[in-house]
Amino acid sequence: MAQSGSSSPVIETSDLSLTFETGDGPVHALSEVSLTINKGEFVSLIGPSGCGKTTLLRVIADLEQPTDGTISINGMSPHEARLKRAYGYVFQAPALYPWRTIGKNIALPIEIMGFSKEERAERVRKGLELVQLTGFEKKFPWQLSGGMQQRASIARALSFDPDLLLMDEPFGALDEIVRDKLNEQVLRLWEKTQKTVVFVTHSIPEAVFLSTKIVVMSPRPGKIHDVIECHFPRDRTLDIRETPEFIDVANRVRKGLREGHSYVD
Amino acid sequence: MLTSLWQGKTLPVLAVCAALAVLWYAGSIWLNADMQRDAFANAGRTDYTFSDLVAGTWSQERPKLPTPGQILVELNKTVIDTAPTSKRSLVYHGSVTVSATLLGFLIGSILGMGLAVLVVHVKSLDRSLMPWVVASQTIPIIALAPMVVVIMNQFDVTGLIPKAIIAAYLSFFPVTVGMVKGLRSPDPLQLDLMRTYSANRLQTFLKLRVPASMPFLFASLKVAVAASLVGTVVAELTKSEDGGFGARLLAGSYYGQTIQIWAALFAAAACAWVLVSLVGLADRVVTRAMGARP
User: Which domain holds residue B59?
Assistant: First the structure.
């Protein structure tokens, strides 16, 4: 069943380019990236290191400025969208502040945004429940495992209920088993909250399992090589990875990655 | 008890202390021997034995190097036996020094933190102010102290304040340097996070930079409180009429009272140790509250 308003674009980029000037000359991190992400979609950006997937996410988040092309988020510039707190961002590392308890870390954005104390307490409680960390509110980050820390950082990103969730290889540093588990949790989260998610990864199974749309990127210069739609049922579980459909999509992604990869040998 | 002695720090510390004491007593013999021989010669004694000589070197009234025992006796006399209100009491002089030290430490810390905040937030000040901050510390304090005292005296600022100013002059520097480093210690990720929340500069400062700077701040405060004591003692060499350890050192050197000098030095060192320990305690309390691993 189609989501209500699933065709309204949340992120639109056209001919987006970003060139970093470095001491060794210009680096073309992004080259003519045109992409539309609709409301409620789960879009994975996949590609080898240096393909600009993280840069693209950072441009969407207004953490980097494009040198050419246009980008709009809900019809606004990334800067306006950032000021309107349109998105939650999950980084590669949990980046929890070590001097704050888990509860206080989750409350950090809503503290900055001026939510009342009661409202904060309520949202922290809900956030902890959402990422299954109830009971860990008073713990400090070092008392939690890496996976739990990353879950807390997801709760933090969701604390102010943004419609858009940007995730930059959030599970890259975790082991396979924890990663599988968190992938399922993220999927349930997405199903439950109906948010639009942009997810950077370099794991093919992760991308295929999670996404409604997989954007395969290639490096030097960073550009979009292929866009693969995949519509597995929303209530899918990890078992789906054994099905021929899943393997077909994974193979197409793998093929795309190979073609895009400019090996010099 | 015995095992904890072996495993803990107690035994190594005691061993080092014992070794130092042996060296010290030997040094006293070596340094004071000439004077003792002269003393025996003046008294017309030629039949003294080596042990007479040693006993003599360890009990002179104004030795070049007094023994630890002599210093402890002097400390006992001036700290415990003398009334704390007496000008001969080290407790009295200590309270004079410590009060100027604490005032100077307070001024220096506030000044140091203020400068650090300015340096971190105003780019032009980073380049224009920091060189002066560094240059200020290249002037020998011993040369600066009398001038500060004289100039302030001109404006009728006397008593505790001039000494505290000199103490502050020495103590603001480590605080500035440490705090600048601390305020800049958040990594790009932590700063990006603030940016994604559209936090303003004040929020980023209060919720990220300040808490991140605490370990750096406390490390510098420990240095600063010791420097503050040094500054006060130097100031007291100039302003000796108010008393204090510095005045005690000066009086001692006027009259060749080496035992008095060493006693004052030991008392000053003990005060510095207590002050640094107190800052260390505050450090532990604060970092524990901020989630540091026990």
Answer: 2-65
Distance between CA B68 and CA B88 in Å, rounded?
Answer: 20
Q: A10-14, A61-65, A254-258, B3-7: which range is least confident on average? A: B3-7
Say which CATH topology domain A9-86+163-260 has. Answer: Rossmann fold (3.40.50)
Interface size between A and B, measured as CB pairs under 8 A? 54
Helices (H), chain B: 2-7, 10-42, 50-57, 68-75, 90-121, 123-136, 141-154, 160-183, 188-196, 201-204, 210-238, 245-254, 258-289
**Nearest-Cα residue of chain A relative to residue B196:** A82
* Contact indicator for A191, A130 with CB cutoff of 8 Å: no
Question: pTM, whole model, 2 decimals?
Answer: 0.84
Residues of A in contact with B202 (CB under 8 A): none
Distance, CA of B70 to CA of B59 (rounded, Å): 7
Any CB–CB contact under 8 A between B201 and chain A?
Answer: no
Residue B206 is encoded by which pair of tokens? Answer: 């209060």
Residue B237 and residue B181 in one domain = yes
Residues of A in contact with B293 (CB under 8 A): 142
Please give the structure tokens belonging to residue B31. 């340094």
Q: What is the mean pLDDT of residues A50-74?
A: 91
Contacts of A159 (CB under 8 A, 6+ apart): A88, A106, A107, A108, A109, A110, A123, A124, A127
Q: Decide: B208 and B189 in contact? Cβ < 8 Å.
A: no
CA distances from residue A46 to A21, A73, A142, B123 in whole angstroms, order as listed? 24, 21, 30, 39
Residue B106 in any domain: the answer is yes
The answer on B124 and B255 residing in a single domain is: yes
Q: What residues of chain B lie within 8 A of the CB of A173, using their CB?
A: none
pLDDT band for position A182 (50/70/90)?
Answer: confident
What ranges do the domains of chain A cover? 9-86+163-260, 97-161
Interface test with B, best of A59, A99, A106, A198 (most B CBs within 10 A): A99
**Contact at CB, A95 and B189, closer than 8 angstroms:** yes
CB–CB of A15/A33 below 8 Å? yes
Q: Are residues B98 and B59 in the same domain?
A: no
Mean pLDDT, chain B, whole residue set: 91
| Residue B71: inside a domain | no
Token pair belonging to A219: 């490096």
Q: Are residues B256 and B121 in the same domain?
A: yes
- Cβ–Cβ contact A16 with B under 8 A: no
Distance CA A84, CA B24 (A): 72
Question: Which uninterrupted H or E stretch holds A147?
Answer: helix A146-158
Q: Rounded to 5 degrees, what are φ and ψ at A82? A: -65, -45
d(CA A161, CA A167): 15
- Assess B123–A contact: CB distance below 8 Å, yes or no: no
Q: Give the residue from A233, A218, A228, A219 showing the smallest Cα distance to A253.
A: A228
More confident of the two residues B238 and B16: B16
